[in-house]
Amino acid sequence: MKILIDLGSLLLATALQELLAGEPEGYRTLAATGTRAVDSFDPDFIIADCHTLPRTATLPETEAKVILMDYGLSEEEIASLLLQYKLDGVMATSTDLDLFKKALKAIGEGQIWIDNHKIKALVNHAESAVGGGLEESLSRKEREIVMLIPQGLTNREIAAVACISEQTVKTHISRIFRKLNVSRRSQLVPLAMKLKLSDTR
Questions:
Q1: 141 touches 165 (CB < 8 A)
Q2: CATH number for the domain formed by residue range(s) 2-125
Q3: What is the CATH number that goes with domain 131-200?
Q4: Structure letter (DSSP) for residue 56
Q5: 115-166 per-position pLDDT tens digit
Q6: Model pTM?
């Protein structure tokens, strides 16, 4: 099992590499900053943080499972990253080694791993941020747009993905804001997370 550890802190990446190297499972690890030596490594897993995730998205086509290392991000930040990137897991820096290895095994078998404490916090955050079933008033297309907004897409990019005009996107966003009584795109992140979680249930 090959693991690329690409964290903003090379010290933390190296410490995690040394910790895993001593395990009997025979993990092959590479602590890297940027794409140094990545091309020839072809990892099964990539462990990244919020600073390096954009880099992992630009790596050449890979089947690697991507795990976010959570340094104490807020629920809104994690929800936004889950919507923006294809993540297979979220792990806190406080995760003990046995649980970490269990998570790697589960992710390797195709499961998504988010520790129970964090998933409960995400669900509670989404529930409290979007009250009273207001999302029920959204049309199918408006729900689709709500899911695209937290990915950081412009109106033009949303229009291309949703196969509608840029002006229609603006109209939908205006209606969404009015229906949900919000004034900023960032306020839609909890709803997008709630919609995504309900789609996977």
A1: no
A2: 3.40.50.2300
A3: 1.10.10.10
A4: H
A5: 777 766 666 665 565 555 667 788 999 999 988 887 778 899 999 999 999 9
A6: 0.67
